[in-house]
Write a structure and sequence with these properties.
Strand order of the largest sheet: 3-2-1-4-10
Strand content: over 45%
Number of strands: 10
């Protein structure tokens, strides 16, 4: 889950980025929150060309789980997001990363 300031009914400013969201409406100018499953977030060690729905972060920890790796990534503002990635992906603690949160999977939380 991540929270921030709603820019309009489908965009949230949070953690150093702008996220397009779905599944509900945000109220412009108010606090909003979204949820996304950790296995749907894509982790990248290189900065993407297109920064839509991308948050910068730093690997706080990573654990090898056999078939996958479990990452804890700290984004601006101190929020930590859990990300599950391929076991072949090996990004060490302290490394800068970029997280892509698919817009259709960033679900607005209401009420």
């Amino acid at each position: 889950m991540s929270s921030g300031l709603a820019l309009d009914d489908s965009h949230l400013s949070c953690a150093g980025g702008k996220l397009r969201c779905s599944g509900g409406k945000l109220a412009a100018g108010s606090e909003g929150a979204i949820a996304i499953r950790q296995h749907l977030v894509r982790l990248s060690a290189s900065k993407p060309d297109n920064m839509e729905n991308v948050l910068p972060g730093t690997v706080a920890r990573q654990v090898f789980l056999g078939a996958s790796r479990d990452y804890l990534v700290e984004v601006p503002g101190g929020t930590q997001l859990r990300v599950v990635a391929s076991a072949a992906e090996r990004i060490v603690q302290g490394s800068p990363v970029w997280l892509y949160l698919p817009p259709e999977r960033c679900l607005v939380l209401t009420g």
